[in-house]
């Protein structure tokens, strides 16, 4: 099984590293895609290699998608290839997990209509303005979609993400 | 179930946060002990609250011990209460998982005689000098003891740590 993480520079380090290591603990192959291939750096100065450029991502090869937060989503949401990849996961009904600022990408991809979700507190108003039923709780599961607010929600975020992935 | 993490300032952030969130994903209560109660700061500037002072730790209340790395073990290994707590876990045969510089604490506690273990590369010579069978692999499991070398070993480290904890 392969899972895709899409991120970029200024990612929230724990929100990328915790899912990355957790998925690999389970024996899952994890690809990290970014705007270009190569090392990306987190807000806390962790560096990790994006082993694939978003232009080369084939969503059909992956079982699930994880979108960490930080400042990365602000850049990613402007990229058509990122949004097309996200839409492909939704269209196929595959698990998509987004935390913190990660849901900004989902707003831009236009995949949240009629959905219940959560996100970082500073993103909440934007989420509501997009017509989404925002819940201020540690994790919201709505069909294929798992969302959380912040790093301290990572235990609940990963618990629900792993359930979704195991069920496939 | 309760698990204890012992750490201090200048901890290796991912080596504390990944086990902390992983254990809590499993519904396990995690106490973080340090030299004094209060916030401790990692090398990458993450702050986390040590909710108990080492002087107040009662090892009999915990099912397992995790020792993250970074610069924290250099300070912790000088503290008698830390070493006494570590010895109590070994005496009771409870799982002890140490990564990176974490095994330095085990050397000072004198609990590694005749053991096979691994650690961060810069600690390897010290481990060998203490008579331990050092292995340069991502994880070594020897009885109750689980050791790993570095952050990139966290998937294997947590896989084996969770096996040990689940078996109790």
UniProtKB/TrEMBL annotation, chains A, B:
Superkingdom of this protein's organism: Bacteria
Residue ranges constituting the DJ-1/PfpI domain according to the UniProt record: 1-163
Residue runs in coiled coils: none
Keywords, alphabetical: Hydrolase, Protease
Entry's Gene Ontology BP terms: proteolysis
Record-linked SUPFAM superfamilies: Class I glutamine amidotransferase-like (SSF52317)
Classification via CDD domains: GATase1_PfpI_like (cd03134)
MF (Gene Ontology): peptidase activity
One Pfam match: DJ-1_PfpI
Family: Belongs to the peptidase C56 family.
Name the record gives this protein: Protease
């Amino acid at each position: 099984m392969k899972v895709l993480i899409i991120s970029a520079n200024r990612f929230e380090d724990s929100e990328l590293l915790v899912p990355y290591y957790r998925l690999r603990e389970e024996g899952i192959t994890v690809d990290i895609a970014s705007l270009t291939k190569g090392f990306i750096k987190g807000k806390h100065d962790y560096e990790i290699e994006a082993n694939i450029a978003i232009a080369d991502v084939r969503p059909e090869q992956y079982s699930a998608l994880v979108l960490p937060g930080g400042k990365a989503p602000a850049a990613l949401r402007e990229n058509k290839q990122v949004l097309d990849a996200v839409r492909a996961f939704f269209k196929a009904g595959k698990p998509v997990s987004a935390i913190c600022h990660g849901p900004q990408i989902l707003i831009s991809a236009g995949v949240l209509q009629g959905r219940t979700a959560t996100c970082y507190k500073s993103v909440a108003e934007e989420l509501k303005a997009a017509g989404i039923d925002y819940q201020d709780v540690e994790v919201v599961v709505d069909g294929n979609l798992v969302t959380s607010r912040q790093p301290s929600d990572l235990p609940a975020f990963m618990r629900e993400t792993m359930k979704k992935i195991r069920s496939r």
